[in-house]
Amino acid sequence: MTLRSEELDVQEKFAVVFDMCSSSTLIEELILTHNLKLMRNLIISLKKFLKSESQRLGFEVYNFIGDGWILLFDVGTAGDNLISFLERLSGHFKSEFERSVEPSLGKTPLVTGLTFGIDKGPLVRIVMLQRVEYIGRALNVASRLQTAIKDKDKKPQYKVLLSKNAYSALRMPKHFRKIVTVTRSLRNINEGEEREFVKVYLEM
Q1: Domain residue limits at 168
Q2: The pLDDT of residue 51 is above 80
């Protein structure tokens, strides 16, 4: 457990937050058809994929948030490598969903897939109840970006919303993917004023 007398452990990270589109609707549909086990198995499959990729790429699978995860990447991570990983993750989700979940749905939601939010900044690392935890604005902003990507976008799946700070630090090659500048208001961030962010379209 971290003690007050210890020096502050501050680590600069890329915080990546993702979740499933229409997860509440999917769960309701699977309950109606007595197939909720399929959602559990989909989440287990994603966890195994993330564990394998984290060992290869060196990122931290930090926290499960019910229908997605928070991932932490070192600031030296190259943008093309990070985006390529998100595309592999999306491809894994899409194939598993179409193979094992969709056939058991009474009605497939109009929007299915993953959405992503990314920010960069200092995080304070602490140990509580024998578990590593992080505190920092980047976590909050990445979470809000992941949610805000759905605003003004009828097809938000397989898209990434980044703060300009994170986008600049990732140093993505020009024309690597379709990239546009958008304006969004983030709940409880900067008093809700509209600001510019960067949207990246994953290749699927």
Answers
A1: 10-201
A2: yes
